[in-house]
Every structure is written in C-alpha cells, then in structure tokens.
Design goal:
This is Phage holin family protein. Pfam families: Phage_holin_3_6. InterPro entries: Phage_holin_3_6. This protein has about 140 residues and is mainly alpha-helical. The protein has one domain. The chain contains three helices and no strands. The two termini are about 50 Å apart.
C-alpha cells in the first residue's frame, strides 16, 4: 500500500500565487514612489546648493567692494569706527540668516512622507481585510 500523498488543493495554490503577485505589485508601487520622492528631494537639494553658492560668492564680492568704497571715502581717523559698524551689521545679518535657515529646516516635510502614508494605508487595509472589518469611508487599494 502506498502512503497517501499530501497535495494542496489547486485553489490554495492559486490564492497563494495571487497573494504573492499582489504583494509584489504593492512593493513595486511603493518603491517606485520612494524613488520619485528621492529624485525630487535630490533635485531640490542640488538647486538649493547651487543657488546658495551663487548667493554666497556674488554677495560676498559685492559687500566687500561696497565696504572698501565706504572705508576709503571716510576720513582716516574714522576708519576704525566705520569698520566696527560694518562688522556689527554683518554679524547681525549673519545671525538673522542663521535663524531663517534653522526655521526652514524645522518646517520641511518629513522624508518620504507620501511613501510612508501609502504604506500605512496598505497596512490598515490588509489588517481590516484579515479581521473581516472594513472601516467606513476608507479607500482600499485593489
């Protein structure tokens, strides 16, 4: 007598295959979204760095030449006072820009925000399907 062979029903294999394909499609979509977000963030950062470099170089050249013109135009006895005033003004402006940069960095959106939100919706939809409970008004991805 032959031992009975354990075979899985064809419906179970089809269901497992469909589940694997769905999981793979979801992972592909999320990775594509993450890639797009990373590319956008890289382009934004590169543009910002180039703009900051131009601002720094040309702003510094302009400020230095203007400072030199004013210092040379002032009487020799007053030059130290004029340079001290310029130094105080430059340090004040630097502090203002440092505060602005800190504020901009604090207000930026979280990294990969859209990808994480989509993954959270997917997880909630899968949890709702596994428990048999579908929240009202929730959009599930098929």
């Amino acid at each position: 007598m032959n031992p009975p062979e354990i075979s899985t029903p064809p419906r179970l294999l089809a269901s497992l295959r469909q589940l694997a394909l769905t999981a793979l499609a979801m992972a592909h979509t999320r990775l594509a979204l993450a890639g797009v977000e990373l590319e956008e963030e890289l382009q934004r950062l590169l543009g910002l760095l180039l703009s900051l470099l131009g601002l720094l170089v040309f702003g510094l050249v302009g400020v230095l030449t203007a400072t030199l013109m004013v210092v040379w135009a002032v009487d020799a006895a007053q030059r130290v006072t004029v340079l001290a005033c310029f130094s105080a003004a430059y340090l004040g402006l630097a502090g203002g820009f440092a505060w602005r940069v800190q504020r901009m960095l604090a207000k930026r959106p979280p990294f990969l925000q859209a990808t994480l939100a989509e993954m959270k919706r997917d997880r909630e939809a899968l949890q709702a399907e596994s428990t048999g409970y579908m929240p009202r008004g929730k959009d599930t991805h098929e």
